[in-house]
């Protein structure tokens, strides 16, 4: 029988890669905690209608990319293609608004889209993101952006580009929408099929079409920025001032859009030149209309989502995978020694050491080779003599110095050894 393979567009994150993921996750947790964001974990599947309303029928995500199915109880369900809709549903359903003030939430987890798999684009992928609910203040936009750039910098990424734009709101957006339709209508036949379809339904989305000819056409389209009303303009100017105050560099990109009505004011993207076609690592913006669109109280909000796979691809280009530091590697030969080694490993772990026990029962020289490769700071060896005397042979891997000592001493002097291990590390 043939072996079963993983589903197209999914991949296993194997031990040799997982260090990158853990590094990013740990940094993210720290950075979010420092800024008083708390984690939220919505379910992986939701009613299909949540995404239809929360992302928009006219988007690629809802129109073509959702993993939707009918369950055994005849419910129309969908594997989440992103997390914002679920977070907002949870915010409304659990009346988080009633807690007063601003809710700062973050999340991490898988999302699912039926797309053509390629580097940095999968059918199961992972997002980290934040949502700030309950503030219309430009400082909320900038705080969210600053946290994204902090996170990317904290994992060592520098050559990233932040693009920002304002999509305005209400009146100004309607005026722009009409201007854009007027501009594009004469070119209608030259637009790609999706864009033709969107000309009246969702014309703003045409601005970020990936089709070459469409891109040429929108090159000379009127700029959103010229249509911003006073309020939108003031908000956007404040965002820019605050970014400058924080020393965060940005480019104005008038073609950066979020197409749907509930997106307002700030839109932003963080890109890298080192990712080929899938250049966008992080995207976000303000969505003051979404909470009410999903049946909640009128609530201003801003957020972003970052694609973990793309971030990890960038990290892999720059550095080798972080390996977990191991204190002791334990090698043993002979029945009594092997049993004692298992017990010693447990006891050492209980006093806080990281310990790997060689389980191979192969010859000592093979076990020593593995000890070398393990990255452990010290190797502990137990043979027949050690078993009989309850001792252990300790070898510092760097200096190759060896000492024999009682197993009991190793445990009772754990603090001393911890210091010595620390010194050997540096
Ligand atoms: P793209 O234009 O690349 O399709 P998007 O606009 O669909 O991106 P968003 O919905 O804004 O992306 O999601 C935020 C981030 O999630 C993206 O910037 C990207 O890093 C990541 N992402 C989105 N779709 C995928 C996918 N299929 N595989 C891997 N990462 C993805
Ligand atoms: Mg997409």
CATH H-level superfamily of the largest domain: Bira Bifunctional Protein, Domain 2
Ligand identities: adenosine-5'-triphosphate, magnesium ion
Radius of gyration based on Cα positions: 28 Å
Strand element count: 16
The shape, in one word, is: elongated
**CATH fold-level label of the largest domain:** BirA Bifunctional Protein, domain 2
The strand line-up of the biggest sheet is: 1-5-6-11-10-9-7-8
Mean pLDDT: 94
Taking the alpha carbons of the first and last residues, their distance comes to 52 Å
In the predicted model, the low-confidence regions spanning at least 5 consecutive residues are none
Biggest sheet overview: 8 strands, mixed
**Helical proportion, percent range:** 40-55%
Q: Roughly what fraction of the amino acids lie in strands?
A: 15-25%
Written overview of the protein:
It is a single chain. The protein is of the alpha+beta class and 426 residues long. The chain folds into two domains: 15-169 and 229-318, Bira Bifunctional Protein, Domain 2 (BirA Bifunctional Protein, domain 2, 2-Layer Sandwich); 326-419, Rossmann fold (3-Layer(aba) Sandwich). It has helices at 15-34, 48-55, 60-64, 84-93, 138-154, 170-184, 193-201, 212-219, 230-245, 290-293, 308-318, 335-350, 364-374, 384-389, 407-412, 414-425, and strands at residues 38-39, 45-47, 67-70, 76-79, 103-112, 124-133, 160-166, 251-252, 264-272, 280-286, 301-307, 326-332, 355-357, 376-382, 391-396, 402-406. The strands form three sheets. It has an eight-stranded mixed beta sheet with strand order 1-5-6-11-10-9-7-8. Strand 9 and strand 10 form a beta hairpin. The longest helix has 20 residues, at 15-34. The two termini are 52 Å apart. The mean pLDDT is 94. The structure holds adenosine-5'-triphosphate and magnesium ion. Residues 82, 113, 115, 120-122, 125, 127, 278, 280-283, 305, 307, 309-310 line the site of adenosine-5'-triphosphate.
């Amino acid at each position: 029988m043939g072996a079963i393979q993983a589903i197209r567009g999914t991949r296993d994150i194997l031990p040799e890669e997982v260090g990158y993921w853990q590094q990013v996750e740990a940094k993210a947790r720290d950075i979010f905690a420092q800024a008083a964001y708390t984690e939220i974990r919505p379910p992986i599947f939701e009613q299909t209608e949540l995404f239809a309303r929360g992302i928009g029928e006219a988007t690629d995500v809802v129109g073509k990319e959702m993993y939707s199915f009918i369950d055994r109880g005849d419910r129309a369900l969908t594997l989440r293609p992103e997390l914002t809709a679920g977070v907002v549903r949870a915010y409304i359903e659990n009346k988080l608004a009633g807690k007063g003030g601003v809710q700062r939430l973050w999340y991490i987890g898988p999302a699912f889209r039926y797309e053509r798999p390629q580097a940095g684009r999968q059918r199961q992928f992972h997002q980290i993101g934040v949502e700030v609910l309950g503030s219309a203040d430009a400082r909320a936009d900038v705080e969210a952006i600053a946290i994204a750039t902090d996170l990317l910098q904290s994992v060592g990424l520098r050559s990233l580009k932040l693009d920002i734009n304002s999509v305005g709101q209400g009146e100004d957006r309607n005026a722009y929408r009409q201007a854009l339709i007027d501009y594009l209508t004469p070119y209608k036949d030259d637009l790609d099929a999706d864009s033709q379809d969107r000309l009246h339904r969702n014309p703003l989305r045409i601005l970020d079409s990936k089709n070459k000819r469409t891109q040429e056409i929108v090159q000379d389209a009127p700029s959103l920025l010229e249509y911003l009303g006073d309020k939108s303009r003031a908000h956007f100017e404040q965002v820019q001032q605050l970014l400058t105050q924080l020393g965060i560099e940005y480019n104005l990109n008038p073609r950066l859009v979020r197409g749907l009505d509930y997106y307002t004011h700030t839109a932003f993207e963080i890109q890298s030149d080192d990712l080929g076609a899938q250049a966008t690592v992080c995207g976000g913006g303000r969505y003051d209309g979404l909470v009410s669109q999903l049946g909640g109280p009128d609530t201003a909000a801003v957020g972003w989502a970052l694609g973990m796979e793309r971030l990890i691809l960038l990290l892999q280009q720059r550095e080798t995978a972080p390996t977990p530091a191991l204190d002791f590697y334990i090698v043993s030969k002979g029945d009594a020694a092997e049993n004692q080694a298992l017990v010693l490993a447990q006891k050492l772990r209980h006093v806080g050491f990281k310990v790997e026990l060689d389980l191979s029962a192969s010859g000592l020289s093979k076990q020593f080779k593995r000890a070398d490769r393990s990255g452990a700071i010290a190797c502990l060896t137990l043979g027949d003599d050690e078993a009989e005397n309850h001792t252990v042979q300790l070898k510092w891997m760097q200096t190759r110095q060896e000492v024999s000592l009682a197993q009991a001493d190793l445990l009772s002097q754990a603090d001393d050894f911890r210091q010595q291990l620390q010194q050997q590390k540096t």
